[in-house]
Amino acid sequence: MRAPAGPPQRAVCLLAGAAVFALPCVLFYRLILFHFYIRGSALSDTGLLGSLMWHSTAALRLPPSLGGESFFAVHVAPVLLLVSAVSDVLPATMPQTFAGFVGVCHGLLALAMFWLLVGGYGMRRGAALALATLAAAAFAFNGLAIAIARFPHFEMFAAACLLLFLVALVLEHRAIAIVAFAAALATREDVGLHAFGFLFLWAAANRLRGIPWRHDAWIVGFALAGLLYSAAALLVQHFAFPGHSSFVRIYLGDPPFAGLGLQREGLRLVAWLTLHPSIIVPAIATGLWAARTHMPFLMLGYAACIPWTLLHLLAANTLAGWMVGYYAFPFVVAMAWPWLAVLIRRGEAEIPAVRAIPLAGLLLAMTALSLLPIGRDWDQGRTPMPDALLHAPSGSQQALTDRAVAAIAAARPALGRLLVDESVASLSPFAFPRAELAGVADVRPDTVVFFPDGFAAAGQEAATGLPSRYRVPGTALIIATNRPAETVQGLGLPLEAVP
Questions:
Q1: For residue 348, what pLDDT band results from cuts at 50, 70 and 90?
Q2: Percent of the chain predicted with pLDDT > 90
Q3: Residues 285-317: tens digit of each pLDDT
Q4: Is 91 exposed, middle or buried (0-12, 13-18, 19+ CB in 10 A)?
Q5: CA–CA separation, 432 vs 105, rounded Å?
Q6: CB atoms within 10 A of CB 337
Q7: Is the preceding peptide bond at 352 cis, omega within 30 degrees of 0?
Q8: d(CA 105, CA 187)
């Protein structure tokens, strides 16, 4: 057993851990701001989730344009209330708050892997610590994590907290395990079921090896807690919001299984081969690793995701059926599982750094495999990578864009019949009713405000035929209108005519 690190080395490890957390946190923060202010985001779900995380009420009311009901009818997500409470004391805008949350999610993902390598594999010094830092930071940028960030949601918080929980459980830091487990459950009502899947298979595999159940008391206890929490949350949600079941709307369908058929499911399987190389390639590599080492336990993470995969294969909703973006979040944990499994199978004892270095190198290689340009990405927002990570909007661009959106919302009725695209509405979801959303409202507009490269082309299409176009310099906003020039200039914004 390696001697505990002394104070100087502990300080170096803490600094390395801070860097591991900060790098993905900052870069994904920048990506989300790029998504909001340069490319143009989606009202549903980016703008919606941002509005719920920023100065929201306890009821988590949706913007009127998206129905106005409580978000708890869609997902039981207490974590949004916590983030909203934090937003009340931070000098941050709504997009900055949401960007910060996404950044923290990816930072926690990297930090969990760093703790596993340093605390579990003893990679605390010299080249070993440098490799652990690099491998852990890189893991936060694996192919699936980036695919999820292209259509940003809040499920990555569940994946990061579940991984942090499992690392703490393996390393026997139970207080941290309890906190991380509770944070994961607070993300969504079904996270307890995912936790149950990983933990139940872990306990079952131990039982097959002859390990008595009493030695797995914590594993079984957490598994049952996750199962009971999700069952209770789903039951309360069903009775509190009858007729608003996300499970029926997304997975079961109404009538149930109406679109089920061999042709549809076969086409989905074919689509998965092109849409999910970031899942399939690491899974194949893990299978080869398990076969070579005669350790099928390495594949337990992927085995735990089989029910989730089958549920999506049969889902009524097309995007869920393809399991694109955030729908695949449990596989982030599955990808990290083999490095947990090695420790579990070695009695949770530290592995000398000389043997840990190849395993950390393997983590880097697995991350690289998940990024191979195989197939095609599902990217409705057409997010350029790595530009979106590196070229965030300046503070002045953000402020000017926010001021322009507020001025446009306040200029009714001078602008006549106003329409905005999703990207404009996502910056201020409560400012624009459904009747002013391009692509939704069936009206002939007098003024249309849109992002030229926005999430959808509805704004550009609605602006067809409007004689005058103006750009707000320093922003991505375009204003197309048939109003007199002095009316547009009355917005109090810098404007330049677009030929």
A1: very low
A2: 75
A3: 999 999 998 899 999 999 999 999 999 999 999
A4: exposed
A5: 29
A6: 26
A7: no
A8: 11
Nearest C-alpha neighbor of 166 from the set 300, 281, 74: 300
In whole angstroms, give the CA distance from residue 452 to residue 326: 26
Q: What is the pLDDT of residues 156-175, one digit of tens each?
A: 999 999 999 999 999 999 99
- Lookup: tokens for 232: 């209770």
Tokens of 362: 């393997």
Q: DSSP letter for 418, please.
A: E
| Single-letter amino acid, residue 270 | V
* Residue 189 in tokens: 């009502």
* Token output for 81: 């209330």
User: Do residues 454 and 463 touch, judged by C-beta distance below 8 A?
Assistant: no
CA distance 337 to 359: 13
- What are the extents of the domains in the chain? 7-389, 395-497
Burial label for 457, CB within 10 Å (0-12, 13-18, 19+), is: middle
Q: Is the dihedral of CA 119, 120, 122, 127 positive or negative?
A: negative
DSSP 8-state symbol, 260: -
> Nearest to residue 322, comparing CAs of 390, 393, 246, 269?
269
- For the beta sheet containing 468-471, the strands, ordered from the edge strand earlier in sequence to the opposite edge, are 418-420, 447-450, 478-481, 468-471, 496-497
* pTM (predicted TM-score): 0.93
Give the integer Cα–Cα distance in Å for 411 and 429: 17
Question: Sign of torsion, CA 440 441 445 448?
Answer: negative
Nearest in space to 164 (alpha carbons), one of 30, 332, 367? 332
User: Are the C-beta atoms of 414 and 483 separated by less than 8 Å?
Assistant: yes
Alpha-carbon span 180 to 171, nearest angstrom: 14
**DSSP for 275-313, written as a single string:** H-HHHHHHHHHHHHHHHHHT-GGGGHHHHHTHHHHHHHH
Structure tokens at 192: 């307890």
Helices 174-185 and 155-170: crossing angle in degrees, nearest 10, is 160
Cα separation, 370 vs 366, in Å, equals: 6
Q: How far is CA 221 from CA 105, 155, 205, 447, 478, in A?
A: 26, 24, 16, 59, 56
How many beta carbons lie within 10 A of that of residue 270, not counting itself? 10
- Name the burial class of residue 391, with classes exposed (0-12), middle (13-18) and buried (19+) by CB atoms within 10 angstroms of its CB: middle
Residues 427 and 43: their CA atoms lie apart, in Å, by 8
